[in-house]
Amino acid sequence: MKVIEIRAYKEKIAFRFEGAEEGAVVTIKAQVPLVCGPEDPAFVPGRVVWKGDVTLRGGAGEIPRYAGKTDLLVYRFLCGCPGVCYVTEVEDEVSEFTDPYPDRPLKAINAKVLEEDLDDLGFAQTSMGWNQAVVMVSKGTPDAIEFEYDGETYYFNRAEVERVDKTMQRVWKRGITAVSRHVNASFLAGERADQAVVDIIQHPGYDYSYPSAYMGAFNLRTEEGFKYFCAYIDHMLARYTRPDHKYGWMVSFETGNEVTSQYVWNNAGEMTCAEYMKEYTEVMRISWLLAMKHWKNFRVFTSFDQYFCGRHVPSEPKRFYGMKESMDEIQNNCDRDGNFPWNVAFHPYPENLSYPDFWNDREPNWTFETRRITFKNLEVMPAYLAQERFLYKGKPRRIILPEQGFNSRNDAPYTLMQGKYGYVLAYQKMKKLGTIDMFLHHNYVDGPWEFGLNLGIRYCDGYDENNREIIAGRKPICEAIAAMDTDREAEMVEEARAYIGAEIFDYMLNPPEVAASVDHSRDGLTIPGQGNRRATDKAKAEGPKANFDT
After folding, report:
1. What 3-state DSSP class applies to 381?
2. pLDDT (average), residues 514-543
3. What is the pTM of this model?
4. 424, 432 in Cβ contact below 8 A?
5. Are the CB atoms for 61 and 14 separated by under 8 Å?
6. Helices (H) and strands (E) in the chain, counts
7. How many Å is the Cα radius of gyration of the chain?
8. Coil, helix or strand for 119?
9. Strands 12-18 and 76-78
């Protein structure tokens, strides 16, 4: 006997079994879905909050959705047999809001934008950052917002929430929708974080000794951490997916930040990729299930960097991962525990962030062996997700690009024009691919704090008394952004083609078909250290060698 589907209704949860005898009695348990990637004898599995015997008729049975005030929608189900253990299907009656996902133009920018740029440049989407370590507080005060989740009261920082409200409302009055990148970053919050909350939500494996652990993973290893996470997510969804869009319209989550470089941007301590993605899959799954209460078509995305088969630090495989192995592990978890519509967000900067001319990138190729994906070989990600095992109900998973941009170098003014026309070329590539829903240029204003890069579409003229960037003039890239999706686009494309070179421009728009592996059959003559073939039989068997990580 095997569980093949768990479907949620407004008041019940229904189970379908394969190979069940008529009238068989199954004991079903609902368990707090705590998760620990590595084997850890100190880890305590979640407690059972509901248990009951169910008589199967026609291979099906059902249980109540609520155990008192506890909504079992996000819980793990134990049925004493293999198969699905989470809700995989959600009926429309569960959701308050069932409108379709909005079909928006690709153009996006960070939310803190001058209104004249929102109007002149035609942005249709934005991204907001939410930090659990800042937004949640431990006590109810006049400065806190009360929120009830599963019969318990949680508190949110009123000033922080209302700050986000103001920004969300400002963009929504122009019809601009928002993606929320939600993180757990007490390190960056400093004294703004409530230490009592941090003690609950900090991932137990977070490496405090690592100086660059800017953000931590969400804590689903303890019941209190799980409850705080659910309340945090549910509060965001209840506020920003309302049918009346009173506070703006949040349409999706980017889950964490660049989890493929987890030791810096989503730290949970050293784990293999499989161990880490076991926990991360549950974070996304619970976020999706909570969203289903509010809006049926809300989307949940990963957050990856740009390394596909490579890693940011190749020598540290328990700290840094590739997107390919990460997606494989996420899908493995779905195949085992039940599928859900996770989608992919990643950040395809040029291979050297200092140089915007991605068409000259040397490392990327159009195969599933490429070390990284940049603007140059964007086609690799849609092709990989188009494989049958990754399809969700027969359709490819969606893709957003919520953080990447074109640097301008102070010592090379020509990079301003490379960025301008690079934006045009990248935009044309994305429009051809069909499954990319967002292209957010990062950043809006040059940030001297951002590792020495000038990624803004506007210059920075220093800082004011509140340590905020003083926004200066527009860069040439703004002309390109403004032209996209208007009657000026064709003219701007021709300008870009002339600047980059017609042959290269056309090749970038019509690259080789994505292949599973690199074809070495026509490598030709190579030199020592760069694919040199030696005459020995052993060398022939080993194949070409390279002096860089592929």
Report:
1. helix
2. 60
3. 0.93
4. no
5. yes
6. 15, 22
7. 25
8. helix
9. unpaired
For residue 104, give the nearest of 128, 126, 125, 127 by alpha carbon.
125
pLDDT-derived band at 527 (thresholds 50, 70, 90) equals low
Give the range among 175-189, 211-225, 398-412, 460-474 with minimum mean pLDDT. Answer: 460-474
Residue of 440, 402, 187 whose CA lies nearest to 302:
402
Q: Which two tokens stand for residue 391?
A: 């399809």
pLDDT confidence band for 191 (50 / 70 / 90): confident
Following DSSP, what letter does each residue of 413-482 receive, concatenated? TTHHHHHHHHHHHHHHHHHHHSSEEEEEES-SB--TTTTT----SEEEEEE-TTS-EEEEEEPTHHHHHH
What is the token pair recorded at 447?
Answer: 């940030």
Closest to 312 (Cα-Cα) out of 323, 302, 303: 323
In the block, tokens 């027969």 appear at 394
> How far is Cα 435 from Cα 387, in angstroms, rounded to an integer?
14
Q: Could you report the per-residue pLDDT of 3-51, keeping only the tens digit for each?
A: 999 999 999 999 999 999 999 999 999 999 999 999 999 999 999 999 9
Residue 318 near residue 272, CB atoms below 8 Å? yes
Contacts of 246 (CB under 8 A, 6+ apart): none
Q: Read off φ and ψ for residue 250, nearest 5 degrees.
A: -95, 125
Per the structure block, which two tokens stand in for 528? Answer: 């020592």
Alpha helices by DSSP H, listed for 266-406, are 273-294, 323-337, 380-385
**pLDDT of res. 539:** 43
Q: Please provide the size of the chain in residues.
A: 550
Q: What is the dihedral of CA 27, 33, 35, 40, to 10 degrees?
A: -50
Round to whole Å and give the CA distance between 71 and 238: 15
Starting at the edge strand that comes first in sequence, how are the strands of the sheet with 144-149 ordered? 136-137, 152-157, 144-149
Per-residue tokens: 461: 């003229």
Token pair listed for 397: 């998973």
Residue indicated by tokens 């100190």: 42
Q: What is the DSSP letter of 51?
A: E
Which helix (H) or strand (E) is 129 found in, with range? Answer: strand 125-131
pLDDT tens per residue, range 89-127:
999 999 999 999 999 999 999 988 999 999 999 999 999
Confidence of residue 520 (pLDDT cuts 50, 70, 90): confident
**What is the rounded CA–CA span in Å between residue 75 and residue 46?**
10
82 pLDDT higher than 50: yes
Residues β-bridged to residue 295: 97
Residues 407, 354 contacting (CB under 8 angstroms): yes
Residue located via tokens 């996902």: 101
- Report which residue type is found at 3: V
136-137/107-110 β-pairing? unpaired
Other Cβ atoms less than 10 A from the Cβ of 98: the count is 12
Q: Is the dihedral of CA 542, 544, 549, 550 positive or negative?
A: negative
In 3-state terms, what secondary structure has residue 179?
A: strand
Three-class SS of residue 55? strand
Task: List beta partners, residue 17.
Answer: 3
Phi and psi of 228, rounded to 5°? -65, -40
On whether the CB atoms of residues 235 and 156 are closer than 8 A, the answer is: yes
Q: How far apart are CA 489 and CA 481, in angstroms?
A: 9
DSSP 8-class letter at 102 = P
